[in-house]
């Protein structure tokens, strides 16, 4: 303007950083796997309840299947998933235990899968708050008209500590992050606020990294070198208030029929941090009870 020569725009950042900004020990799956395989809590009766929430189609059910696949060493598809858009495919609140060694022995952590958030069904947020407090029984079928009421057979009036949520994980699809509606973001924040009141630790996983960035699709090991993925994480962190060190990039099993070590490593990395947070929370609760 005004005859002055304007500065040329800065060159776009290179698609890949020279060095990854977060370290993943590629090629060493055993260490992470052993951490989970031998994972136990001090109190044998204690169980960590991990609740996954997030937009419809974000990959919540797929993440549970992916964790099961890694831990069982073969593809596992217990939680139903679907390639649909719009309404949530998962309609029920369901708890998934993971078998360890034999059919009646389970890992000391469980995953709660729920219906996804969408723009028009605000009732789900009230139900999720009840889940955080342990008031919702397994297999509750979500009713879009009204939240679960105290008189319902699926309302748990006297939740034990194992019924309550110990880690809240927000799942978001990296490839559609930029189009996430303000309403869904608001719902995520509202759920986080309730969890914060209960001191429940909160993490996030960004799925579908393969669909979000061509460099990552080419080689999953590029995931923490991709400038685009880092920017997505930063934007998501700013939008929902979850700090960067609590956000993990993941590619779920979705079309593969065989396990892949790189996919496993990202899933184990996220799972390890989820378990650390849950364990710290349980310890903190125990201490405050003793004091
Ligand atoms: N490319 C790719 N596709 C994925 C990934 N994770 C999940 N998907 C696909 O995304 C679709 C939705 O996945 P779901 O696991 O059903 O998502 P959800 O969050 O449980 O969805 P609702 O139950 O509807 O809320 C399915 O077609 C999956 O195969 C991923 O990491 N990469
Ligand atoms: Mg689902």
Which key terms come to mind for this protein?
Rossmann fold; seven-stranded mixed beta sheet; 8 helices; binds guanosine-5'-triphosphate; binds magnesium ion; Interferon-induced protein 44-like; P-loop_NTPase
Describe the protein's architecture and organization.
InterPro entries: P-loop_NTPase. This is Interferon-induced protein 44-like. It comes from Betta splendens (Siamese fighting fish). This protein has a seven-stranded mixed beta sheet with strand order 4-2-3-1-5-6-7, with helices on both faces. The chain contains eight helices and seven strands, in the order H-E-H-E-E-H-E-E-H-E-H-H-H-E-H. The protein has a single domain, classed as Rossmann fold. Helix 1 packs parallel to helix 8, helix 2 packs across helix 8 and helix 3 packs parallel to helix 4. The longest helix has 30 residues. It is of the alpha/beta class. The site of magnesium ion has 5 residues, from helix 2.
Draw up the topology in text.
Elements: H1 29-37, E1 48-54, H2 60-72, E2 92-100, E3 102-113, H3 123-132, E4 140-141, E5 167-173, H4 182-197, E6 202-207, H5 209-212, H6 214-218, H7 227-240, E7 247-249, H8 261-290
Parallel strand pairs: 1-3, 1-5, 5-6, 6-7
Antiparallel strand pairs: 2-3, 2-4
Bound molecules: guanosine-5'-triphosphate and magnesium ion.
Magnesium ion binds next to α2.
């Amino acid at each position: 303007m005004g005859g002055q020569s304007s500065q040329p725009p800065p060159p776009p950042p290179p698609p890949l950083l020279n060095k990854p900004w977060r370290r993943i020990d590629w090629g060493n799956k055993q260490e992470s796997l052993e951490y989970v395989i031998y994972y136990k809590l001090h109190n044998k009766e204690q169980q960590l309840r991990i609740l996954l929430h997030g937009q419809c189609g974000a990959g919540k059910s797929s993440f549970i299947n992916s964790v099961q696949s890694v831990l069982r060493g073969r593809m596992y598809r217990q939680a139903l998933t679907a390639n649909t858009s719009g309404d949530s495919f998962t309609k029920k609140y369901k708890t998934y235990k993971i078998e360890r060694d034999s059919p009646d022995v389970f890992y000391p952590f469980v995953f709660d899968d729920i219906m996804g958030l969408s723009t028009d069904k605000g009732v789900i947020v009230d139900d999720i708050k009840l889940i955080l407090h342990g008031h919702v029984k397994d297999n509750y079928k979500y009713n879009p008209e009204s939240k679960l009421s105290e008189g319902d057979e699926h309302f748990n009036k006297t939740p034990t500590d194992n019924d309550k949520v110990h880690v809240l994980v927000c799942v978001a699809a990296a490839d559609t992050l930029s189009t996430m509606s303000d309403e869904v973001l608001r719902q995520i924040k509202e759920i986080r606020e309730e969890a914060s009141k209960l001191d429940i630790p909160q993490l996030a996983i960004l799925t579908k990294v393969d669909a979000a960035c061509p460099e990552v699709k080419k080689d999953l090991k590029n995931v923490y070198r991709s400038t685009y993925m880092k920017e997505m994480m930063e934007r998501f962190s700013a939008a929902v208030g979850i700090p960067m060190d609590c956000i993990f990039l993941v590619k779920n099993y979705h079309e593969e029929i065989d396990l892949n070590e790189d996919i496993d490593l990202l899933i184990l990395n996220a799972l390890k941090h989820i378990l650390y947070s849950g364990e710290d929370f349980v310890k903190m609760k125990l201490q405050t009870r003793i004091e």
